[in-house]
Amino acid sequence: QVQLVESGGGLVQAGDSLRLSCAASGRTFSGYAIGWYRQAPGKQRELVAAISSGGSTNYGDSVKGRFTISRDNAKNTVYLQNNSLKPEDTAVYYCAADLTGPPRWAARYWGQGTQVTVSS
Length: 120
Prior knowledge:
The protein is mostly beta strands. 0% of the residues lie in helices and 54% in strands. The chain has strands at residues 2-7, 10-13, 18-26, 34-39, 46-51, 57-59, 67-72, 77-82, 91-99, 107-110, 114-119.
């Protein structure tokens, strides 16, 4: 069992930056692929970024070049650095662990989410 807690969301203006954190507890964290997902009102949940246990990364097309995912296994934490935020980045952002990989990017464990709101 893995427990995930997201933090770092908030209200920002377009062009600003945020760093989201996902703190994990429970079973061995370093062996899991971790992903950040988001869901905007009326839209399906989508993968934003994922990082494997070895550090390989994948990004959704809409955030490539703006967002960076990283992990600190010593702190059992994964980060999502969001730069050049746009109003369309507004969503609830979720951290998830134990991913299946493409194409479905399903996950076994989920956090409760953190709201990111970007004003124009």
